[in-house]
Amino acid sequence: MCNKSATLDIHFLNAEKTQMRLIFHYDPSWNFGDCKHQAYIDKHGDYPMNFPKDIVLTKQ
User: Fold this and answer.
1) Mean pLDDT, the chain cut into blocks of 10 residues (60 residues total)
2) Which superkingdom heads the taxonomic lineage of this protein's source (predicted)?
3) d(Cα 37, Cα 1) in Å, to the nearest integer?
Protein backbone atom coordinates (compact mmCIF):
# COMPACT_ATOMS: atom_id res chain seq x y z
CA MET A 1 0.00 0.00 0.00
CA CYS A 2 1.61 3.24 -1.15
CA ASN A 3 5.15 1.74 -1.24
CA LYS A 4 4.76 0.48 2.34
CA SER A 5 5.73 -3.13 3.01
CA ALA A 6 5.52 -5.38 6.04
CA THR A 7 6.61 -8.71 7.46
CA LEU A 8 4.54 -11.30 9.24
CA ASP A 9 6.29 -13.48 11.84
CA ILE A 10 4.56 -16.78 12.59
CA HIS A 11 5.66 -18.86 15.59
CA PHE A 12 4.18 -22.02 17.10
CA LEU A 13 3.94 -21.67 20.88
CA ASN A 14 3.91 -25.35 21.79
CA ALA A 15 5.22 -28.69 20.48
CA GLU A 16 1.71 -29.91 19.64
CA LYS A 17 1.28 -26.93 17.28
CA THR A 18 -2.14 -26.10 18.70
CA GLN A 19 -1.23 -22.43 19.25
CA MET A 20 0.47 -20.00 16.91
CA ARG A 21 1.36 -16.37 17.28
CA LEU A 22 1.23 -13.93 14.37
CA ILE A 23 3.16 -10.68 14.70
CA PHE A 24 2.81 -7.95 12.06
CA HIS A 25 5.65 -5.44 11.55
CA TYR A 26 5.89 -2.54 9.13
CA ASP A 27 9.20 -2.41 7.27
CA PRO A 28 10.96 0.98 7.34
CA SER A 29 10.08 3.08 4.29
CA TRP A 30 9.38 6.64 3.24
CA ASN A 31 5.95 8.19 2.95
CA PHE A 32 6.05 10.24 -0.26
CA GLY A 33 2.92 12.25 0.52
CA ASP A 34 1.08 11.35 -2.69
CA CYS A 35 -0.53 8.22 -1.25
CA LYS A 36 -4.30 8.00 -1.75
CA HIS A 37 -4.57 7.30 2.00
CA GLN A 38 -2.62 10.45 3.00
CA ALA A 39 -5.64 12.18 4.61
CA TYR A 40 -6.24 9.08 6.77
CA ILE A 41 -2.54 8.91 7.72
CA ASP A 42 -2.51 12.60 8.69
CA LYS A 43 -5.61 12.17 10.86
CA HIS A 44 -4.78 8.83 12.53
CA GLY A 45 -0.98 8.69 12.33
CA ASP A 46 -0.91 5.32 10.55
CA TYR A 47 -2.15 3.47 7.49
CA PRO A 48 -5.62 1.89 7.53
CA MET A 49 -5.18 -1.75 8.60
CA ASN A 50 -7.62 -4.60 9.02
CA PHE A 51 -4.98 -7.01 10.31
CA PRO A 52 -4.06 -7.41 14.00
CA LYS A 53 -0.50 -6.45 14.90
CA ASP A 54 -0.13 -9.25 17.46
CA ILE A 55 -2.50 -12.19 17.88
CA VAL A 56 -2.44 -15.74 19.28
CA LEU A 57 -4.56 -18.34 17.48
CA THR A 58 -5.63 -21.57 19.20
CA LYS A 59 -6.75 -24.74 17.43
CA GLN A 60 -9.99 -26.06 18.87
Assistant:
1) 82 94 82 76 78 87
2) Bacteria
3) 9
